[in-house]
């Protein structure tokens, strides 16, 4: 399966609208499961549609293997049907008058694949997606989730080298969504298809992807493994977009006791790393204890008061207050403390994400 390479891709829908995608460089390797992640309007769908050939580039180029599939400068454009990619969108359309088997078979018939091979491939994907039992039913006799599986099966049956999925699980309830994620992972492992998956759901991206491209306002913010994105966010946008409850941000210069304290604590430890603009601490990396002696040596610490305690089913979100400033910690141990009690909040140095004034990560 060929790699997909986007070079300096630009997209404007009209001369006077802001760019939907700018300066995008992306290398999608063979067999990768790449998630394009970002808020609504950040350019994810536009990017996917350009890879598919459903949207032209304004500038830059897309190369698939050794073929330039779109390059305005070279007046080169290869249509979607010749790119060997399968697409499943949020709204998938099954043929209502065809059985599930015929729906799954549809692309293979179109490609005039011989009958024996068609049967073999359809049976294989139907088994993989657990829809064999619906073979003779019609789409209207299936649930939304089952229909979505048929849409995927139809795509997989033609064995596309690349599968492009735009929020394909968005119509499903929470449980089905989870099941389908597991299913997609299995499909990816079994068929070794390159998958590009658009989502605005960070958990979806974290659980599925081998690499995540985080986008905002048409530009790539960070490309990395789910762990990279979570543990070493390249900038404030990525740090704040990924993680729930969201990362605590202390603004240096905000004048609050906690913000000042963390700045004081950090300054001698930063050396020549540059000027701090803000510090992020993920809620699960923020701990608290009643006795200062229990704070690990070398950790940042500060006195705080317990505010609210919010049970979330198996874990708790704890509100910690310092002079009216609130930060959140999470814990999986049932809290024995109550609101109003005084504690020491603490965090290990490695748990502090330090950003400069331009909101980019200050590298260690
Ligand atoms: P969502 O998650 O809401 O689908 P997205 O991240 O996929 O958002 P895009 O759909 O790629 O974002 O849109 C990027 C930008 O381009 C937005 O500002 C959007 O309004 C604009 N846009 C998208 N499609 C068109 C179009 N056909 N004509 C004009 N502008 C468009």
UniProtKB/TrEMBL annotation:
Q: What is its EC number?
A: 3.6.3.20
Instruction: Tell me which SUPFAM superfamilies the record gives.
Output: MOP-like, P-loop containing nucleoside triphosphate hydrolases
- Tell me the ranges covered by the ABC transporter domain, including all copies: 4-242
Provide any one GO MF term from the record.
ATP hydrolysis activity
Q: Which domain of life is it from?
A: Bacteria
Main location, first listed in the record: membrane
Provide the membrane topology annotation.
Peripheral membrane protein
Matching SMART domains, A to Z?
AAA (SM00382)
Can you cite an annotated GO cellular component? ATP-binding cassette (ABC) transporter complex, substrate-binding subunit-containing
What keywords is this UniProt entry annotated with?
A: ATP-binding, Hydrolase, Nucleotide-binding, Transport
| UniProt subcellular location | Cell inner membrane
The record ties this protein, via Gene3D superfamilies, to: 2.40.50.100, Nucleic acid-binding proteins, P-loop containing nucleotide triphosphate hydrolases
Which protein family is named in the record? Answer: Belongs to the ABC transporter superfamily.
Protein's name according to its UniProt entry: sn-glycerol-3-phosphate import ATP-binding protein UgpC
Name the species this protein comes from: Devosia equisanguinis
């Amino acid at each position: 399966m060929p790699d997909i390479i986007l070079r300096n891709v630009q997209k404007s829908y009209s001369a006077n609208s802001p760019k939907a995608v700018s300066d995008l460089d992306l290398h999608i390797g063979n067999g990768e499961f790449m998630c394009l992640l970002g808020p609504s309007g950040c350019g994810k769908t536009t990017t996917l549609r350009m890879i598919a050939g459903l949207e032209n580039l304004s500038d830059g180029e897309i190369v698939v293997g050794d073929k330039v599939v779109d390059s305005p400068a070279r007046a080169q454009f290869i249509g979607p049907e010749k790119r060997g990619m399968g697409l499943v969108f949020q709204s998938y359309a099954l043929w209502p008058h065809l059985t599930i088997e015929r729906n799954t078979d549809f692309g293979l018939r179109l490609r005039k694949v011989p009958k024996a091979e068609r049967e073999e491939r359809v049976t294989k994907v139907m088994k993989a997606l657990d829809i064999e039992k619906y073979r003779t039913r019609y789409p209207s006799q299936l649930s939304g989730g089952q229909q979505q599986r048929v849409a995927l099966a139809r795509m997989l049956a033609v064995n596309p080298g690349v599968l492009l999925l735009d929020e394909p699980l968005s119509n499903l309830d929470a449980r089905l969504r989870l099941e389908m994620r597991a299913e997609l992972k299995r499909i990816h492992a079994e068929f070794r298809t390159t998958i590009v998956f658009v989502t605005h759901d960070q958990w979806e991206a974290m659980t599925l992807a081998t690499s995540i491209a985080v986008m905002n306002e048409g530009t790539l913010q960070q490309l990395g493994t789910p762990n990279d994105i979570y543990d070493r966010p390249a900038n404030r946008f990525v740090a704040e977009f990924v993680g729930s409850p969201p990362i605590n941000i202390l603004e240096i210069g905000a004048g609050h006791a906690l913000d000042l304290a963390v700045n004081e604590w950090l300054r001698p430890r930063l050396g020549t790393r540059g000027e701090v603009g803000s510090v992020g601490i993920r809620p699960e990396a923020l701990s608290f204890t009643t006795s200062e002696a229990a704070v690990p040596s070398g950790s940042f610490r500060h006195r705080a008061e317990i505010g609210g305690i919010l049970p979330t089913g198996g874990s708790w979100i704890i509100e910690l207050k310092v002079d009216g400033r609130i930060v959140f910690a999470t814990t999986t141990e049932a809290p024995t403390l109550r609101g109003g009690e005084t504690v020491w909040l603490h965090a290990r140095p490695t748990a502090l994400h330090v950003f400069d004034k331009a909101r980019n990560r200050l590298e260690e």
